[in-house]
Protein backbone atom coordinates (compact mmCIF):
# COMPACT_ATOMS: atom_id res chain seq x y z
CA UNK A 1 0.00 0.00 0.00
CA UNK A 2 1.20 3.53 -0.66
CA UNK A 3 1.96 6.01 2.10
CA UNK A 4 -0.86 7.54 4.06
CA UNK A 5 -1.75 11.09 3.09
CA UNK A 6 -2.91 13.77 5.54
CA UNK A 7 -4.34 16.95 4.02
CA UNK A 8 -5.46 20.08 5.88
CA UNK A 9 -8.40 21.88 4.30
CA UNK A 10 -8.27 25.31 5.89
CA UNK A 11 -11.53 26.39 4.19
CA UNK A 12 -12.18 30.17 4.42
CA UNK A 13 -9.98 30.80 7.44
CA UNK A 14 -6.77 32.61 8.22
CA UNK A 15 -4.85 35.84 7.74
CA UNK A 16 -1.27 36.49 6.64
CA UNK A 17 -0.26 36.47 10.30
CA UNK A 18 -2.00 33.19 11.22
CA UNK A 19 -0.81 31.47 8.02
CA UNK A 20 2.78 32.47 8.83
CA UNK A 21 2.48 31.22 12.41
CA UNK A 22 0.71 27.94 11.64
CA UNK A 23 2.84 26.99 8.65
CA UNK A 24 6.03 28.08 10.39
CA UNK A 25 5.26 25.60 13.16
CA UNK A 26 4.26 22.80 10.76
CA UNK A 27 7.30 23.34 8.52
CA UNK A 28 9.63 22.91 11.50
CA UNK A 29 7.89 19.80 12.82
CA UNK A 30 6.85 17.72 9.79
CA UNK A 31 9.58 15.31 8.73
CA UNK A 32 9.74 12.92 5.82
CA UNK A 33 8.51 10.10 7.98
CA UNK A 34 6.43 7.76 5.87
CA UNK A 35 3.46 10.07 5.47
CA UNK A 36 2.55 12.58 2.76
CA UNK A 37 1.33 15.92 4.10
CA UNK A 38 -0.38 18.80 2.32
CA UNK A 39 -2.17 21.97 3.36
CA UNK A 40 -4.86 23.78 1.38
CA UNK A 41 -5.20 27.43 2.40
CA UNK A 42 -7.49 29.95 0.69
CA UNK A 43 -6.36 31.17 -2.74
CA UNK A 44 -5.05 34.48 -1.39
CA UNK A 45 -2.66 32.70 0.97
CA UNK A 46 -1.32 30.10 -1.48
CA UNK A 47 1.69 32.12 -2.64
CA UNK A 48 2.69 32.80 0.95
CA UNK A 49 2.21 29.13 1.86
CA UNK A 50 4.33 27.87 -1.06
CA UNK A 51 7.23 30.07 0.12
CA UNK A 52 6.99 29.08 3.80
CA UNK A 53 6.99 25.32 3.14
CA UNK A 54 9.51 25.40 0.28
CA UNK A 55 12.23 23.61 2.24
CA UNK A 56 9.90 21.23 4.11
CA UNK A 57 8.17 18.05 2.89
CA UNK A 58 4.77 19.76 3.13
CA UNK A 59 2.99 20.27 -0.20
CA UNK A 60 0.45 22.98 -0.93
CA UNK A 61 -2.94 22.53 -2.55
CA UNK A 62 -5.94 24.64 -3.52
CA UNK A 63 -9.52 24.07 -2.34
CA UNK A 64 -11.01 24.31 -5.84
CA UNK A 65 -10.10 25.37 -9.37
CA UNK A 66 -11.74 26.44 -12.60
CA UNK A 67 -12.83 23.93 -15.21
CA UNK A 68 -10.95 25.98 -17.81
CA UNK A 69 -7.23 26.57 -18.35
CA UNK A 70 -7.50 30.22 -19.37
CA UNK A 71 -9.92 32.80 -20.70
CA UNK A 72 -12.84 35.08 -19.86
CA UNK A 73 -13.99 33.52 -16.57
CA UNK A 74 -14.12 36.44 -14.16
CA UNK A 75 -13.30 35.50 -10.60
CA UNK A 76 -12.09 32.00 -11.44
CA UNK A 77 -8.63 30.56 -10.78
CA UNK A 78 -7.16 28.24 -13.37
CA UNK A 79 -5.47 24.94 -12.49
CA UNK A 80 -2.63 26.00 -14.80
CA UNK A 81 -2.07 29.10 -12.64
CA UNK A 82 -2.13 26.97 -9.51
CA UNK A 83 0.49 24.57 -10.84
CA UNK A 84 2.60 27.48 -12.10
CA UNK A 85 2.74 29.07 -8.65
CA UNK A 86 3.78 25.87 -6.89
CA UNK A 87 0.52 24.14 -5.92
CA UNK A 88 0.58 20.40 -6.41
CA UNK A 89 -2.83 19.33 -5.06
CA UNK A 90 -6.39 20.47 -5.59
CA UNK A 91 -9.56 19.52 -3.69
CA UNK A 92 -12.53 19.08 -6.05
CA UNK A 93 -16.24 18.57 -5.42
CA UNK A 94 -16.16 19.33 -1.71
CA UNK A 95 -19.66 19.06 -0.26
CA UNK A 96 -19.59 22.76 0.66
CA UNK A 97 -19.08 23.60 -3.02
CA UNK A 98 -21.82 21.19 -4.05
CA UNK A 99 -24.16 22.63 -1.39
CA UNK A 100 -23.45 26.39 -1.54
CA UNK A 101 -22.32 26.76 -5.15
CA UNK A 102 -24.50 24.18 -6.84
CA UNK A 103 -21.59 22.14 -8.20
CA UNK A 104 -22.82 19.14 -10.15
CA UNK A 105 -20.99 15.90 -10.86
CA UNK A 106 -20.57 17.12 -14.45
CA UNK A 107 -18.82 20.29 -13.28
CA UNK A 108 -16.62 18.28 -10.91
CA UNK A 109 -15.71 16.04 -13.87
CA UNK A 110 -14.79 19.06 -16.01
CA UNK A 111 -12.66 20.54 -13.20
CA UNK A 112 -11.00 17.17 -12.71
CA UNK A 113 -10.06 16.92 -16.38
CA UNK A 114 -8.64 20.47 -16.33
CA UNK A 115 -6.71 19.82 -13.10
CA UNK A 116 -5.13 16.61 -14.42
CA UNK A 117 -4.21 18.32 -17.69
CA UNK A 118 -2.48 21.07 -15.68
CA UNK A 119 -0.45 18.53 -13.70
CA UNK A 120 -2.25 18.89 -10.36
CA UNK A 121 -3.01 15.85 -8.18
CA UNK A 122 -6.76 15.81 -7.54
CA UNK A 123 -8.58 14.98 -4.31
CA UNK A 124 -12.15 14.18 -5.37
CA UNK A 125 -14.66 14.51 -2.52
CA UNK A 126 -17.74 12.33 -2.20
CA UNK A 127 -20.19 11.70 0.62
CA UNK A 128 -23.81 11.30 1.55
CA UNK A 129 -26.11 13.48 3.65
CA UNK A 130 -27.68 12.24 6.89
CA UNK A 131 -31.03 11.74 5.13
CA UNK A 132 -29.40 9.67 2.40
CA UNK A 133 -27.65 7.48 4.98
CA UNK A 134 -30.83 7.03 6.99
CA UNK A 135 -32.78 6.01 3.91
CA UNK A 136 -30.14 3.40 3.02
CA UNK A 137 -28.86 5.26 -0.05
CA UNK A 138 -25.34 6.12 1.12
CA UNK A 139 -23.56 3.59 -1.10
CA UNK A 140 -25.52 4.38 -4.24
CA UNK A 141 -25.09 8.15 -3.74
CA UNK A 142 -21.33 7.78 -3.36
CA UNK A 143 -21.10 5.43 -6.35
CA UNK A 144 -23.03 7.92 -8.50
CA UNK A 145 -20.72 10.77 -7.44
CA UNK A 146 -17.65 8.67 -8.28
CA UNK A 147 -18.99 7.62 -11.66
CA UNK A 148 -20.14 11.16 -12.46
CA UNK A 149 -16.69 12.58 -11.80
CA UNK A 150 -14.48 9.78 -13.09
CA UNK A 151 -16.05 7.74 -15.84
CA UNK A 152 -15.28 10.03 -18.77
CA UNK A 153 -11.68 10.84 -17.78
CA UNK A 154 -8.87 9.95 -20.17
CA UNK A 155 -6.77 8.28 -17.46
CA UNK A 156 -5.95 9.02 -13.85
CA UNK A 157 -2.81 7.83 -12.05
CA UNK A 158 -2.51 8.33 -8.31
CA UNK A 159 -6.11 9.33 -7.78
CA UNK A 160 -7.14 10.44 -4.31
CA UNK A 161 -10.78 10.22 -3.25
CA UNK A 162 -11.95 11.77 0.03
CA UNK A 163 -14.98 10.16 1.63
CA UNK A 164 -16.61 12.92 3.65
CA UNK A 165 -20.05 12.06 4.97
CA UNK A 166 -21.84 15.43 5.02
CA UNK A 167 -23.33 14.66 8.44
CA UNK A 168 -19.82 14.36 9.93
CA UNK A 169 -18.35 17.62 8.61
CA UNK A 170 -17.83 20.24 11.30
CA UNK A 171 -20.41 18.55 13.51
CA UNK A 172 -18.17 16.64 15.90
CA UNK A 173 -19.89 13.45 14.67
CA UNK A 174 -17.36 11.10 13.13
CA UNK A 175 -18.25 8.04 11.14
CA UNK A 176 -17.18 5.09 13.26
CA UNK A 177 -14.03 3.41 11.97
CA UNK A 178 -16.25 0.48 10.91
CA UNK A 179 -18.70 2.74 9.02
CA UNK A 180 -15.82 4.52 7.30
CA UNK A 181 -14.02 1.25 6.48
CA UNK A 182 -17.17 -0.22 4.94
CA UNK A 183 -17.64 2.82 2.70
CA UNK A 184 -13.95 2.95 1.76
CA UNK A 185 -14.05 -0.71 0.70
CA UNK A 186 -17.16 0.09 -1.37
CA UNK A 187 -15.39 3.08 -2.98
CA UNK A 188 -12.39 0.92 -3.95
CA UNK A 189 -14.74 -1.64 -5.48
CA UNK A 190 -16.47 1.07 -7.52
CA UNK A 191 -13.07 2.44 -8.64
CA UNK A 192 -12.06 -1.01 -9.90
CA UNK A 193 -14.97 -0.89 -12.31
CA UNK A 194 -14.11 2.51 -13.81
CA UNK A 195 -11.97 2.39 -16.95
CA UNK A 196 -8.91 4.64 -16.82
CA UNK A 197 -8.68 4.64 -13.01
CA UNK A 198 -5.79 2.74 -11.46
CA UNK A 199 -7.70 1.44 -8.45
CA UNK A 200 -4.63 -0.32 -7.06
CA UNK A 201 -2.78 2.96 -6.49
CA UNK A 202 -5.79 5.11 -5.58
CA UNK A 203 -5.88 6.38 -2.00
CA UNK A 204 -9.15 6.93 -0.15
CA UNK A 205 -9.03 9.53 2.63
CA UNK A 206 -11.61 9.91 5.36
CA UNK A 207 -12.88 13.39 6.26
CA UNK A 208 -15.39 14.61 8.83
CA UNK A 209 -14.44 15.65 12.37
CA UNK A 210 -11.05 13.93 12.27
CA UNK A 211 -9.17 14.92 15.43
CA UNK A 212 -5.99 13.94 17.26
CA UNK A 213 -7.98 11.58 19.46
CA UNK A 214 -9.79 9.60 16.74
CA UNK A 215 -7.17 9.57 13.96
CA UNK A 216 -5.28 6.51 15.14
CA UNK A 217 -8.32 4.20 15.15
CA UNK A 218 -9.41 5.46 11.73
CA UNK A 219 -5.94 4.87 10.24
CA UNK A 220 -5.92 1.35 11.67
CA UNK A 221 -8.64 0.37 9.18
CA UNK A 222 -7.40 -1.41 6.08
CA UNK A 223 -8.89 0.85 3.44
CA UNK A 224 -8.44 4.23 5.16
CA UNK A 225 -5.41 5.70 3.45
CA UNK A 226 -5.28 9.04 5.24
CA UNK A 227 -7.45 11.99 6.19
CA UNK A 228 -8.83 15.26 4.87
CA UNK A 229 -8.92 17.41 7.99
CA UNK A 230 -10.95 20.60 8.40
CA UNK A 231 -11.15 22.35 11.77
CA UNK A 232 -8.36 20.39 13.44
CA UNK A 233 -5.92 21.37 10.67
CA UNK A 234 -6.04 24.99 11.89
CA UNK A 235 -4.39 24.07 15.19
CA UNK A 236 -0.74 23.06 14.76
CA UNK A 237 -0.62 20.63 17.70
CA UNK A 238 -3.83 18.85 16.59
CA UNK A 239 -2.74 18.55 12.97
CA UNK A 240 0.74 17.35 13.97
CA UNK A 241 -0.82 14.66 16.20
CA UNK A 242 -2.93 13.46 13.26
CA UNK A 243 0.19 13.42 11.04
CA UNK A 244 1.96 11.53 13.83
CA UNK A 245 -0.84 8.95 13.99
CA UNK A 246 -0.46 8.41 10.24
CA UNK A 247 3.32 7.98 10.42
CA UNK A 248 3.23 4.94 12.70
P1 LIG B 1 -14.03 19.01 9.74
O1 LIG B 1 -12.76 18.22 9.97
O2 LIG B 1 -14.00 20.38 10.31
O3 LIG B 1 -15.24 18.22 10.10
O4 LIG B 1 -14.12 19.24 8.14
C1 LIG B 1 -13.97 18.17 7.29
C2 LIG B 1 -13.84 18.68 5.91
O5 LIG B 1 -14.81 19.15 5.33
C3 LIG B 1 -12.51 18.61 5.27
O6 LIG B 1 -12.59 18.87 3.90
From TrEMBL:
Keywords: Cytoplasm, Gluconeogenesis, Glycolysis, Isomerase. Substrate binds at residues 9-11, 170, 209, 230-231. It comes from the Bacteria. The active site is at 94 (electrophile), 164 (proton acceptor). Pathway: Carbohydrate degradation; glycolysis; D-glyceraldehyde 3-phosphate from glycerone phosphate: step 1/1; Carbohydrate metabolism; erythritol degradation; Carbohydrate biosynthesis; gluconeogenesis. One of its GO terms (molecular function) is triose-phosphate isomerase activity. It is found in: Cytoplasm. Its main location: cytoplasm. It catalyses: D-glyceraldehyde 3-phosphate = dihydroxyacetone phosphate. The keyword Cytoplasm applies. InterPro entries: Aldolase_TIM, TIM_sf, TrioseP_Isoase_bac/euk, Triosephosphate_isomerase, Triosephosphate_isomerase_AS. Its EC number is 5.3.1.1. Pfam families: TIM (PF00121). Involved in the gluconeogenesis. Catalyzes stereospecifically the conversion of dihydroxyacetone phosphate (DHAP) to D-glyceraldehyde-3-phosphate (G3P). Belongs to the triosephosphate isomerase family. Homodimer. This is Triosephosphate isomerase.
Amino acid sequence: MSQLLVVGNWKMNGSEATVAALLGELALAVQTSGVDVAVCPAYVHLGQAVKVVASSPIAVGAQDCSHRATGAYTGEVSPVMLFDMGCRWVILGHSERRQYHGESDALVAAKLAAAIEAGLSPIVCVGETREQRESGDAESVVAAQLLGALKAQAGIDSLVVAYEPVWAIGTGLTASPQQAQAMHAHIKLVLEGIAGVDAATARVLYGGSVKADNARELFAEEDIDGALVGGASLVASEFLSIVGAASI
